[in-house]
Write a structure and sequence with these properties.
Layout (H helix, E strand, L loop, with lengths): L1 H6 L4 H4 L3 H10 L5 H14 L3 H5 L3 H8 L6 H16 L8 H5 L6 H11 L9 H11 L7 H11 L5 H14 L18 H4 L16 E12 L2 E5 L15 E4 L5 H13 L6 E10 L2 E11 L13 E5 H7 L3 H8 L3
Parallel strand pairs: 1-5
Antiparallel strand pairs: 1-2, 1-3, 2-6, 4-5
Helix pairs in contact: 3-4, 3-9, 9-12, 10-12
The protein binds a DNA duplex through α3, α4, α7, α9 and α10.
Length: 337
DNA sequence: GAGACGTGGAC
DNA sequence: TGTCCAAGTCT
């Protein structure tokens, strides 16, 4: 709570936490980051400053003020809820859990948020931040059932401090106990954090295990003629970006890079250059480890007229560098000579 | 408890 | 560049 008092962000719904303003902010904040919500919230509040203005507005106009925020059922629901509030609760947000969750768009989280933040009632909130914080503080490597989260969050609430406490926990999750690279050295509760103690802060939640990379063999040609470099516009594989690249071909699993390179060179130049003596480079492109053999050859005697195959062009080195967008080929060029 | 629902930011 | 994730709810 002391940390929160010093580090809380100044937010419009915090400066004036009326039930209506808290309600709208909580709906907008569902699965949406604070920074994204801010401009929408200000604009929405200017147009719909209270429940009555919202209830009497056309759905299309409410949606227009939501355009770009996503999850548009939220906008339709708050308007429907406003209508219910107008004729069932005489225009005031109800103050019991049962009544709140019965309103469209309000679930367990939002009901708890309204009751605690706007009315300071001791109801827990469990969002992504709270789940992460509970799991880390308690050292839970495997996620517990949803029920346990709610029980712990409820047990944590200090008497009479629900409003600030719930926001403090979420603020801590948003600013310090972040999903990736938590800022443990700045954390006010690091001393009582089980994950911190056991160095599990990076394994809770379980790091995304990436699918094993596929190994790929490539033969690349580095053909030069009078200081120019031969580039190809036919990609060697669909995962290599860019329009232009070095001439290259994929080497089959048991195939020989040497043969592949010479086949390719024959097709391009009609046999005037025989590349040999490759050097190897390694490169990674999403889920693929590429091992490439780069074959050099000088085409000092110009290949016969028209023998350079279609889709290939000679470029000055600086032009070539400008046209090549894949760092795989840039890597190959760096080792020239 | 899955799966749909949107969009933008971070890595 | 591909994924994950964000102050969740509803079916």
């Amino acid at each position: 709570m002391r940390w929160y008092a010093r580090n809380r962000r100044t937010l419009p719904w915090r400066e004036d936490p009326s039930p209506y303003r808290v309600w709208i902010s909580e709906i907008m904040l569902q699965q949406t980051q604070v920074r994204t919500v801010l401009p929408y919230y200000e604009r929405f509040m200017r147009r719909f400053p209270d429940i009555r203005s919202l209830a009497s507005a056309a759905e299309s106009e409410v949606l227009a003020h939501w355009a770009g925020l996503g999850y548009y059922a939220r906008a339709r629901n708050i308007r429907r809820a406003a209508l219910v509030i107008e004729d069932r609760y005489s225009g005031d947000l109800p103050q019991t859990y049962e009544e709140l969750v019965s309103l469209p768009g309000i679930g367990a989280y939002t009901a708890g948020a309204i009751l605690s933040i706007a009315f300071n009632q001791p109801f827990p909130v469990v969002d992504g931040n709270v789940r992460r914080l509970i799991r880390r503080l308690q050292g839970m490597r495997t996620p517990p059932g949803e029920k346990l989260f709610w029980e712990i969050a409820a047990a944590w609430i200090p008497k009479g401090r629900a409003a600030d406490f719930n926001q403090a926990v979420m603020e801590l999750g948003a600013l310090i106990c972040t999903p990736a690279r938590p800022r443990c050295p700045s954390c006010p509760v690091q001393a009582i954090c089980e994950a911190r103690r056991r160095c599990w802060e990076c394994s809770i939640p379980e790091p995304r295990r990436r699918q094993p990379a596929e190994g790929i063999g490539l033969a690349i040609l580095l053909l030069e003629r009078n200081g120019r470099i031969l580039l190809s516009s036919t990609p060697a594989a669909d995962f290599i970006p860019g329009m232009w690249g070095l001439p290259a071909i994929q080497v089959e699993d048991q195939g020989s890079a040497e043969e592949a390179a010479q086949d390719l060179a024959r097709r391009i130049t009609g046999g005037s250059a025989m590349p040999a003596d490759p050097f190897m480079i390694r490169h990674a492109i999403t889920h693929r480890r590429i091992v490439a053999a780069v074959f050099r050859a000088d085409c000092t005697e110009a290949p016969g007229k028209g023998t350079t195959a279609r889709g290939y062009r000679w470029f000055e080195r600086t032009d070539a560098l400008r046209h090549i967008t894949s760092s795989l080929y840039r890597k190959a060029l760096r080792y020239r000579r």
